[in-house]
Design a protein that fits this description.
The complex is a heterodimer of chains A (about 600) and B (about 450).
Chain A lengths: L7 E8 L2 E6 L7 E7 L2 E11 L2 E6 L11 E8 L1 E4 L7 E3 L28 E5 L6 E2 L4 E7 L2 E6 L8 E6 L3 E3 L6 E4 L5 E4 L3 E4 L22 H6 L7 E5 L6 H11 L4 E7 L3 H10 L16 E6 L5 H19 L4 E7 L1 H14 L13 H9 L3 E4 L5 E10 L9 H9 L2 E2 L4 H5 L12 E2 L5 H10 L4 H25 L6 H18 L13 H16 L1 E2 L4 H20 L5 H17 E2 L1
Parallel strand pairs in A: 8-20, 18-23, 18-24, 19-20, 19-21, 21-23
Antiparallel strand pairs in A: 1-2, 1-6, 2-5, 3-4, 3-6, 4-5, 7-17, 9-11, 9-14, 10-13, 11-12, 13-15, 15-16, 22-23, 24-25, 26-27
Helix pairs in contact in A: 4-5, 6-7, 10-11, 10-12, 11-12, 11-13, 13-14
Chain B lengths: L7 E3 L2 E4 L3 E5 L8 E4 L2 E9 L2 E6 L12 E3 L5 E4 L7 E2 L15 E4 L16 E2 L4 H4 L4 E2 L3 E6 L5 H11 L4 E9 L1 H13 L6 E7 L10 H15 L3 E7 L1 H14 L13 H9 L3 E2 L5 E9 L8 H9 L2 E8 L4 E4 L5 E2 L14 H23 L6 H18 L7 H15 L2 H4 L3 H7 L5
Parallel strand pairs in B: 9-15, 13-18, 13-19, 14-15, 14-16, 16-18
Antiparallel strand pairs in B: 1-7, 2-3, 3-6, 4-5, 4-7, 5-6, 8-10, 11-12, 17-18, 19-20, 19-21
The structure holds adenosine-5'-triphosphate and magnesium ion.
């Protein structure tokens, strides 16, 4: 893409944040350019080219721009800077460090350095002089918070290189040369701790990408048990407003078993981002004992920030994830909400007067969504180590109706479907994931089943299917009771219904705001699931349906108290004892 | 508005549509204001020399030789303490027969607050209405609309909330407001002796509808002045945002944009978010809280306007007439304050969250019992009790005429539990039951 002389241009027309610019030289699709006006320059991206005219989307407000204002093209696409210092940052969608900006209000054209040029990092070499290396190979590492941050051969490098020299252990800045490589033509190339990468292109410096198979523990029972997600897997959470998408994602951000979390706040509320950076510095990560913020990076492009940058922000976030995956880490990307990204695409496509698809979304929406989800995955790196990017996005369907383009496109791309139901949310059955409509395709993967049998237990899968079956039968019973009336059905229908209610109240429902209940480790899930399944497998003796209701409410109450108690604490055991006594009262031996 | 010497003047309009005029005028800035034969207009599109202007009051009767004066700036508002107690139109011009105000001229629709400069909203706003304080607690820096059918008393409730909220400043943005409603607000505020705390920007049904597009930005520019420059707690009332959105769709349809759902512009979400996201808690103590009204048509919340609003705001308050008690209540099922977590059980009593949830769950059981009854089935004893509970709960807590203090609301909840249920049926954490379950006298 390198050009000798940079192209310039002049604005010809302005429609909101779409400009048509007449260029005096070559331009390329997705090239970044800057609009020069007195005192500031505004960043923009080429999204269509027609003859000498480049259609560009401006990542800022276009207020006051005039025909004839000059534009300078940069010769490169939208890039992020990759290097130590990314972790725990609050970036905007274009990787500007929000904390480095002055003033309370965002200023147009205020672009800040994502990393720190002056900070010293303790570098330790991994490779040595004479080694033959390829793009993505690890040269050395620095400690970033607690993560061994690998310094790699830049991903853009093509072919093989030989390490001519590498610096000795010590403190270096990100722009210091830490190694010199020589290429096949024997030319020397200095390597620093940073490199740039265009966000719209996936980083593919890995050996292979097998089907993912390792369960990623989330602590959310209804996910881990009924519809598990895996390391390197993909999932999405559609749900009407207020059904709990964000609370669920924040739960995952806090609890999921990942080395690193990137939260892409994409066109949603600013206050939800505030919650993360105010609370995470205080919250402990139970796995490492460190503060949650130490493993969390925020890419915030909230709903009031410029729309084009919102569209770019998901790519920025994904690229950061892929970078850390190349270091052999397990990264979880949470994007809330991918519908806002799709809407940003729609606004631009409409302004360019493209032929609209369903609901005025661009025709190629499905393809765009699929290729984005395809960037997630579990990979074997060239050095044999593994890394993963797990991606879970939310979808905000218009009118709560799942038959709309974004939900449908995403359904084709994501392997787990966590449908939040309005009905469950209305009756405060949180998390409102519908246990029957939702699915995880991973449950069918033989490699996943094998992994679970080895690492959780041999009968886990069987128990999961049993649980799903009880839920289904409970639903059927509930429908019959509603049609025929409490007295119109045999008592066994009530039993079936209440067995499913136990699972609902004790396993599925989980109080995200209770310190104990919010997160359940797999060990505890296993214990509770067994207890509940045993309750469901029993036969009971009842004379009337009213007895059934009353009895099971009591059982549910004891189980819930167990959920609120520390696992195996005195309190926990006390409720368990009461539970067992109650079970014995009615159980048919 | 008067014209000044340096302004560019043109007299040759080449194209007129219902909402826009186009003319050849080089060197004009995007979003710049212009005046066409005395009517305010704004640049919405520029193509080479051709500038397209959106005329706020419509283009009826505009001749091709109309005088077009470009102002060289986007819409602005003069801000100072003189705003207090004053009433303005959508352009920020006084309509209360008092003199123009002096102050710093600021562009409306200013940039967003840097998210990292925000504080977490944390100060409870007590309204005395249990349907809000107990079930849907509101905090400063929050944005929340009333979803209401046009015949519900949302203006009354909103005025009540505004007066009880103990805000330093109230900004009223009226869009498509009937003159009667405007006078209602004026009277209520005057009677409460609060007029000097209030700034109003009013577009009534008598004014052209497109003008109301300016109202939220005017109101919020004033709000930012008081919240940022003066560190005040500002409450912004926006009513009715449905009429605002309707005006947006009129403009976009007239400009031949491809409509998305319900003939609303595809950018509706972003347009509304820009307004609502102005709600913020500033680090220096000032805050902007937005309470809005979104009227529904036939209670349909899947319509694009309430739907997009719901996705933006931090919850919503539903008003509904409860036919069992004949009063308007704040519906506990569809209402939600997302920020209540930040204060309930922390700034309020520890048992608040559990009492709130238990009561709503029992109210839901009552709704199920009612369905059963309607379908002709026998009710169990438990069903009967839930129905009785529901009536008491509606009357003593949900009705909008309730005005009590929060602890009293929680106590009322416990008393109703005891009156109708056993502790197991209420299923609240045992430590709270032990502590708060009313003792027999
Ligand atoms: N697991 C939960 N436990 C308790 N309450 C919950 C839970 N999940 C959601 N809620 C309640 O529902 C509210 C809305 O949840 P959330 O903000 O996650 O919805 P959302 O689906 O992200 O909505 P939107 O699409 O508008 O962003 C929360 O503020 C909270 O009151
Ligand atoms: Mg959300």
């Amino acid at each position: 893409m390198a050009k000798n002389k940079l192209t310039t241009g002049k604005i010809q027309s302005i429609i909101a944040n779409l400009l048509i610019v007449e260029a005096d030289g070559p331009v390329s699709q997705n090239e970044i350019c800057y609009i020069k006006i007195p005192g500031v320059q505004l960043m923009a991206e080429v999204i269509k080219i027609n003859g000498n005219n480049a259609y560009i989307q401006v990542f800022e407000s276009t207020r006051g721009l005039k025909v004839g204002d000059s534009v300078e093209f940069t010769g490169h696409m939208l890039e992020v800077t990759l290097g130590p210092g990314i972790l725990s940052k609050n970036f905007d969608g274009l990787q500007n460090d929000l904390d480095k900006m002055d003033g309370v209000f965002l200023k147009r054209g205020d672009y800040t350095n994502p990393l720190e040029d002056d900070k010293l990092w303790e570098f330790k070499a991994i490779a040595k002089a004479g080694d033959k290396v390829f793009a993505g190979d690890w040269l050395g590492e620095v400690k970033e918070n607690w993560i061994p941050h690998k310094i790699m051969v830049p991903f853009k490098f093509i072919g093989s290189y030989t390490i001519k020299s590498i610096v000795s252990e010590g403190e270096y800045k990100i722009n210091d040369t830490i190694a010199v490589l020589s290429n096949e033509k024997n030319e020397d190339i200095a390597i620093t701790m940073i490199q740039k990468w265009p966000v719209r292109i996936p980083i593919k410096n890995y050996k292979s990408k097998p089907r993912p198979f390792k369960i990623m523990e989330t602590g959310v029972r209804t996910m881990d048990i009924l519809n598990p997600i895996v390391e390197g897997g993909t999932g999405f959470i559609p749900g009407p407003f207020g059904s709990g998408k964000t609370v669920l994602q924040h739960g995952l951000a806090k609890q999921a078993e990942a080395d690193l979390i990137i939260v892409a706040a994409c066109g949603e509320r600013a206050n939800e981002v505030v919650e993360i950076f105010k609370e995470y510095p205080e919250l402990n990560d139970p796995r490492t004992g460190r503060k949650l913020i130490e493993r969390t990076t925020i890419v915030a492009n909230t709903s009031n920030m410029p729309v084009a940058a919102r569209e770019a922000s998901v790519y920025t976030a994904m690229t950061l994830c892929e970078y850390y995956r190349s270091m052999g880490l397990r990264v979880l990307l949470l994007a809330d909400s991918t519908s806002r990204w799709a809407q940003a695409l729609r606004e631009m496509s409409n302004r360019m007067e493209e032929l609209p698809g369903p609901d005025a979304f661009p025709m190629d929406l499905s393809a765009i969504v699929s290729s984005f989800y395809a960037r997630a995955g579990y990979v074997y790196l060239n050095n044999g180590k593994t890394g993963s990017v797990t991606f879970i996005g939310t979808v905000s369907p218009a009118g709560g109706n799942l038959k709309e383009p974004v939900t449908e496109s995403t359904k084709k791309a994501a392997r787990c479907f966590y449908a939040l139901s309005q009905q469950r949310a209305d009756s405060k059955r949180y998390p409102a994931i519908d246990p029957i409509d939702s699915y995880s395709k991973y449950l069918e993967y033989p490699e996943f089943i094998e992994y679970i049998q080895k690492n959780i237990s041999s009968d886990w899968i069987e128990d999961v299917l049993y649980t799903k079956n009880i839920l289904l039968r409970g639903k059927e019973a509930y429908e019959q009771i509603n049609i025929l009336g409490d007295d119109g059905v045999p008592i066994s229908y009530h039993l079936n219904f209440w067995k499913s209610e136990i699972i609902d109240f004790v396993i599925l429902q989980q109080d995200a705001f209770d310190d104990v209940d919010a997160s359940t480790p797999i060990k505890r899930q296993k214990y509770m699931l067994k207890s509940i399944i045993n309750i469901c497998k029993n036969d009971y003796n009842f004379d009337s349906f009213e007895e059934v209701n009353h009895y099971f409410k009591k059982i549910i109450n004891f189980c819930k108290q167990m959920n609120y108690s520390d696992f195996q604490s005195e309190q926990f055991k006390e409720y368990e004892k009461k539970l067992n006594t109650t079970i014995e009262e009615r159980k048919i031996a | 508005m008067e014209t000044k010497a340096f302004q560019k003047i043109y007299t040759k309009i080449t194209q007129v549509t219902k909402a826009t005029c186009s003319l050849s005028a080089p060197g004009i800035g995007y979003e710049e204001l212009a005046i066409i034969n005395g009517r305010l207009a704004q640049v919405v599109k520029i193509n080479k020399d051709i500038v397209t202007l959106q005329v706020f009051s419509g283009t009826e009767g505009i001749p091709t030789n109309a005088e077009v004066v470009f102002m060289g700036k986007p819409p602005t508002l003069k801000v100072s303490d003189e705003l207090s107690g004053r009433i303005f139109n959508a352009y920020g011009e006084p309509i209360d027969d008092m003199p123009d105000i002096q102050g710093e001229e600021r562009e409306i629709g200013s940039p967003s607050v840097n998210p990292v400069r925000r504080e977490q909203p944390s100060e409870l706003i007590a309204t005395g209405i249990a349907g809000i304080d107990l079930n849907n607690t509101i905090v400063t820096g929050q944005k929340i609309p009333f979803f209401a059918d046009p015949d519900q008393p949302f203006n009354q409730v909103m005025a009540m909330v505004a007066l009880r909220a103990q805000a330093d400043r109230i900004i009223l943005g009226g869009m498509g407001m009937t003159n009667d409603d405007f006078l209602f607000y004026k009277n209520v505020f005057e009677n409460a002796g609060a007029s000097d705390r209030i700034v109003s920007f009013i577009n009534t049904t008598e004014n052209p509808s497109v003008e109301r597009l300016l109202v939220p930005d005017m109101a919020l520019t004033a709000a930012e002045y008081f919240a940022v420059d003066k560190n005040e707690k500002v409450l912004v009332l926006l009513t009715d945002m449905t009429l605002y959105a309707d005006a947006l769709s009129i403009v976009s349809n007239r400009m031949d944009q491809i409509p998305s759902k319900d003939s609303m512009p595809g950018s509706l979400y972003s347009d509304l978010a820009k307004i609502y996201e102005k709600a913020v808690q500033f680090p220096e103590g000032g805050s902007i809280t937005i309470i809005a009204v979104t009227t529904l048509s036939g209670g349909d919340i899947t319509h694009a306007i309430p739907d997009n609003t719901g996705y933006i705001t931090e919850g919503q308050l539903f008003l509904r007439k409860d036919s069992d008690i004949g009063k308007v209540i704040v519906d506990p099922f569809r209402s939600l304050s997302r920020l209540k977590q930040l204060v309930i059980g922390k700034q309020t009593r520890e048992d608040h969250p559990q009492v709130m949830n238990a009561a709503i769950r029992l109210f839901a059981d009552a709704a199920n019992a009612k369905t059963k009854l309607q379908n002709g089935f026998d009710l169990s004893d438990y069903d009967e009790r839930t129905l009785n509970f529901a009536k008491d709960y509606s009357n003593d807590l949900l009705a909008i005429d309730v005005n009590i203090e929060i602890n009293k609301m929680i106590d009322t909840g416990w008393n109703l539990f005891k009156k109708h249920f056993t502790p197991e049926e209420v299923a609240i954490k045992k430590e709270f039951v032990d502590k708060y379950w009313p003792k027999n006298e």
